[in-house]
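In this section we turn from sequence analysis to structure. A common task in structural bioinformatics is to predict how a protein folds when a small molecule is present, because the ligand can shape the pocket around it. The inputs are simple: the amino acid sequence and a SMILES string for the ligand, here flavin mononucleotide. Study the lines below before reading on.
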Amino acid sequence: MSSFFGNHLRLSLFGQSHGEAIGMTMDGFPAGMTIDLRRLEEEMARRAPGQSRLTTSRKEPDQPEFLSGVLNGVTTGQPLCAIIRNTNTRSQDYGSGVDLVRPGHADYTGHIRYGGFEDWRGGGHFSGRLTAPLVVAGTLCRQWLEAQGVEILCHIQRLGRVEDASLMDADLPVDGAELRSQALPVLRSELAAAMEAEILAARSASDSVGGVLECMVTGLPAGLGAPFFDSVESVLSHLMFAIPAVKGVAFGEGFGFAALRGSEANDAFRMSDRGTVTATNHAGGINGGISNGMPVIFRCVVRATPSIALAQQTISLREGKNAELSVHGRHDPCILPRAVPVVEAMTAIGLMELWKERAAWVR
Ligand SMILES: Cc1cc2nc3c(=O)[nH]c(=O)nc-3n(C[C@H](O)[C@H](O)[C@H](O)COP(=O)(O)O)c2cc1C
């Protein structure tokens, strides 16, 4: 089954972009947490389309409704179900039934997998819209984790040709709240204008642009993660690859490890007033699949949006012939700004699963 995640926090995702509603159920979420509704609204707004001229003009309020698991604003510990009604759907943007399959999108593979019975409207179950309920689930997990001292932040490390600084540079001061308030969250704020120009240039060329998101978790205790299959890297990358358009994930130095000798790659252990630390953090806070107490740092590559107005070669499923397609619906010229809160939310879901796994195991 593909729409379930987790063994200790059981999350399921349902709905299609242009169906009645999208939503999630989460089983195993702790009782007694007063949901911070203002924060939830903020996170939903960060992911929602139509927030700035850099995203699609499609406007969706993305208001979650809790159907169960919450009483008087407090979690009950019972299965938590939230839905978001779809209000802004224009299936004519996508024609009637899948015919010309969008290169780079899931139209062709979804059609093959589900034998033509798939809900194709607006990308159906493959749409980026399905990340809205994931942000609901992730924001609740994040609030719970923050109460344990865990902070998650993410920035756009690269957009097209513009590269921001990296969180791997240890001495960088980072203000999570400040990052969250930016339309294009970057560490070197002077780069936001150049990134914006990349997005606008791609859009005016009827094209799209991709990049890299970098995420950091601080305050995570040592000892989370269970090798082999539930290593911190396995769990987080499982969730990252579930985000539509994520094409690569790397922890710490990632592929940069290829060029480092052991003496350069190893992080020396030291005793400090904070307890055991490492002098460097090439490993991105994880050894042997288990958190070592240092910041967990990873990057995700996000491809350029598949739906573009530029003419492209494809096939007609109905006619079984080669064809040409330009996509004219309301699409993001760049997915990155809206994917930032999704990466943070998915990180929180994964960490909560690992936290609960450890709690179940430690006697
Ligand atoms: C927040 C978000 C918004 C997205 N918006 C669009 C969009 O407007 N148009 C589009 O073609 N793809 C969009 N995508 C990406 C597609 O859903 C994705 O590329 C497609 O499902 C194929 O999956 P894959 O890229 O993982 O192979 C978005 C993804 C995310 C995470």
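The chain has a mean pLDDT of 94. As an exercise, try to locate the residues that line the flavin mononucleotide site and compare them with your own expectations.
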